[in-house]
Amino acid sequence: MTVETEQIVRSAEERSSDTEHDEGPSLIELDHIHKTYVMGDVNVHALRGVSLKVSPGEFVAIMGASGSGKSTMMNLIGCLDRPSKGRYVLDGVDVSSLSKDARADIRNRKVGFVFQGFNLLSRTSALENVELPMLYANVSSEDRHRIAREALHAVGLAGREANHPNQLSGGQQQRVAIARSLVNNPVLILADEPTGNLDSRTAVEVMDIFQRLNQESGITIVLVTHEHDIAEYAKRVVIFKDGKISKDYPVSVRRNAAEELKNLPVLVDDEDDEE
Ligand SMILES: Nc1ncnc2c1ncn2[C@@H]1O[C@H](COP(=O)(O)OP(=O)(O)OP(=O)(O)O)[C@@H](O)[C@H]1O
Ligand SMILES: [Mg+2]
Hints:
Elements: H1 5-9, H2 12-16, E1 28-39, E2 42-54, E3 59-64, H3 70-77, E4 85-90, E5 93-94, H4 100-110, E6 111-115, H5 126-135, H6 141-154, H7 170-182, E7 188-192, H8 200-217, E8 220-224, H9 228-231, E9 236-241, E10 244-250, H10 257-263
Parallel strand pairs: 3-8, 3-9, 6-7, 7-8
Antiparallel strand pairs: 1-2, 1-4, 4-5, 9-10
Helix pairs in contact: 5-6, 5-7, 6-7, 7-8, 8-10
The protein binds adenosine-5'-triphosphate (ATP) and magnesium ion.
């Protein structure tokens, strides 16, 4: 797929200002979204009329019981799937009616993904894992190396470029995945239970990176979590129940991961190297 370099290098702020809306710019606008999975003769009605607006610069935690539709909604927001009914506008573009290729193009330019299981290629170095999304965006190999190194540096992994995932701790692997999500300069990061497989200190370190990306780079973050204390690092909480939004409220006392890390005992991050 062809993406012009000019589009890649435009900053998150510039691109999010493309949005045209009467009532302030929404980055994400879901309007009465339904999603029904058809499995043989059984229909699973995973989303039952979800409407949600997220403005640029927000940090939203999505919570709710297993099966309530959180990942289904993340897949739609990330243009990995399309709604059965309803309208979805991402950064001013109505993506609900776009073709698969057009959705992939928007996804590659605007969205970074971070998953619970890291989803790294195991036989490939950290640097190459981070370079991967740029292969699809026609970035020169020189630029790929440079941008990937910068992204690894930004998440605190300078010097780990050559390590394979099994030579990194869980937290380091998740940081590689975050670096990978950053290289196409996304306006939006979608993270589905990114701390689900991490111990508590490492989870705070990962939340520190998300808070910095949100505060310092203005990247909008939508993050699914089962843990209330993780949700408190966000600015807003949206709760799903049975395929619908049941609650939507601002976080009143927000946690600050950077501050907390100063007071947490430092574990030796490199312990895993000896394994
Ligand atoms: N690809 C699929 N095909 C069929 N049914 C699906 C598919 N993906 C999800 N579902 C169903 O849709 C409903 C919502 O699933 P979803 O994965 O969105 O839940 P979730 O809130 O992310 O749950 P969890 O917290 O366990 O990750 C569930 O009943 C699930 O079984
Ligand atoms: Mg899920």
